[in-house]
Every structure is written in structure tokens, then in C-alpha cells.
Amino acid sequence: MKIQSLTSTVIALLLALASLSARSEMVPTPLTGDTRLVTFEYDPENTYLVLSRPKAHTHIMMPEGELLESVMAGDTASWEITPSKNLKHLFIKPKYEDIETTLTLLTTNKTFQVVIRSTGEGRKWYQQVAWEVPKGFVFDIGANIPKNNPQLENTQRLQAGEKIDTAVGIDPTKLNYAYTVTGSESFKPTQVFDDGQKVWLQMPKGLVEMPAVFAKEGRDLVLVNYLVKNDFIQIQQLVERIVLKIDSKEVVIDKGEKSFWGGRSKSWAE
């Protein structure tokens, strides 16, 4: 009886672990029965595992209407990562078997968090990877907001001779500007604010490469979910400390407090 009970417990535990793994890692759908040609259903809350192998390229196709804006890889020494000239395709190839690293793809309107893993000869790998984007994930902030809407002007920014970009399409009376920006890199935000749910970073005009966005949790840097629209990065949650990184360069953004007079301290770069 004890053995039967123990066996039932072990089976239940294994099923629970399998369920947890399935929720954290998206499973691709093979195309036309060929397991090397797969399609993921896009979900910004999930990570995608892409299998590759040495001496072969894996072709990652961007969804229709999306162009690559930035590609961040954890291990660039052991992987060849090459975007196409039209920025609609990305080609990856590992130099060795059984290696793994992270890959963050920033496109016109979306962010893809990917883990790329190297297999070997005779083992499963993907030759082509595509995404199917549900219509519910189309992101177009400010689509119904008229340009030059005077209600979207902010008093603090007017005093500095600037306006909030109307593209964000949010109520300016609900914005919190209490953020401190530290750093002098070219990707230092010109403005930071939140509406109690999400954080917006207004990036410098003409920025060629967008930084990766992390939350500082203790000693760890954790990738956060975010979207890129024009010159804005929209973080999908409130974060006490934000770290922007390009290679070894970084900018740190700390959430501040209310000022002595009851208002919010300014958040744009000094």
C-alpha cells in the first residue's frame, strides 16, 4: 500500500513539473509535416526555444509588417547572428554543439524573448522559424489620439520648452515623473514617466540601436516585457530600478518619491 501511494505521489509530481514546463516554454507547430520548419504563436509573455546546430543556419522570419530594430545576444562569441539587409530575416548558427544563450529581438512593434540552443548531428533542430501573431496583439498606441492635442501637454515640460509626445496617448493628469536617470550614454532617455501601471521611456531622436531593458532585482538583472513605438519604450509593468544596456554600457533609472511641495520631481535628463 505504501509503495502504491509513493508511486502515485511521484507520478503526480512529474505531471505537475511537466505542466509547469509547458507553461513557461512555447511549443512550435511544424509546417507541412516537416519538423525542421516550425511556427510559434506570438505571446509577449512567453519565451521561445529555438534549436539550431553547427554547420547549418537557422532562418528566423519576422512577422508581416515587422522589421528588426535591434538584436541582443548573450554569447556573441559562440554564435553567428546575421540580420538580412531588409531586416525581415535573422540567421543564426552555433559554432559548437550543446551550447545555449539568450536572444532578444526588438522589432517595429514587438519584442521576442528567445533562448537559442545548439544540438548536434542526427538530433532535432529548426531550419526555419516563423511567428503567427493573433490580431489581439496588434499594438498601435495613440492611433485614435489626434496630433498636437493640447490636453496632452505637460506643464513641467512646457517650462523646459518641450511637450510630451502625443503618440503615447495617455492622460497627463495621471502621470508620475518621479524618476532619476543616471548615466551619460547616447541611449539615455530624455524623459521617464508612468501611469501607475506601465513605464514609458522617451529615447533620443535618431537613436540607431535600442538598448535591452532589465529590472534590477537584488544583484540580478531580469529582462522585462516591453514594446517599442517610435521613440518610446513602453515597459509593461512598474519597476523600481530599470537598467538599460548595450554591451557593457548602461543607464540606470530609479523610481523616485514625491517632492516637498507635494508634486512629482522631474524625470528628464539633466
Give an overview of the whole structure.
With 270 residues, the protein is mainly beta. Among the domains are: 25-132, Sandwich (Immunoglobulin-like); 179-255, Immunoglobulin-like (Sandwich), CATH 2.60.40. It has two helices and 20 strands. The strands form four sheets. The chain has a six-stranded mixed sheet with strand order 2-3-11-5-8-7, with no helix packed on it. β19 (241-246) and β20 form a beta hairpin. The longest helix is centred in the first third of the chain and has 23 residues, at 2-24. The chain starts with a helix and ends in a 15-residue tail after the last strand. The model is unreliable at 9-24, 137-167 and 258-270 (pLDDT under 50).
Give the biggest sheet: 6 strands, mixed
Radius of gyration: 22 Å
What is the CA–CA distance across the termini? 72 Å
- Report the top-level CATH class of the domain at 25-132: Mainly Beta
> What's the CATH topology name of the domain at 25-132?
Immunoglobulin-like
Quaternary state of this entry equals single chain
Mean pLDDT: 75
Count of alpha and pi helical runs = 2
Unreliable stretches (pLDDT < 50, length at least 5) are 9-24, 137-167, 258-270
Compact description:
This protein has 2 helices and 20 strands.
Salient structural properties:
Immunoglobulin-like; 5-stranded mixed beta sheet; elongated; mainly beta; 2 helices
What order do the helices and strands come in, and which of them pair?
Layout: H1 2-24, E1 25-26, E2 29-31, E3 34-41, E4 47-52, E5 58-61, E6 68-73, E7 79-83, E8 89-94, E9 100-107, E10 111-118, E11 128-132, H2 155-159, E12 179-182, E13 191-194, E14 199-202, E15 212-217, E16 220-223, E17 226-229, E18 232-235, E19 241-246, E20 249-255
Parallel strand pairs: 1-4, 3-11, 4-10, 5-11
Antiparallel strand pairs: 2-3, 5-8, 6-9, 7-8, 9-10, 12-20, 13-14, 14-18, 15-16, 15-19, 17-18, 19-20
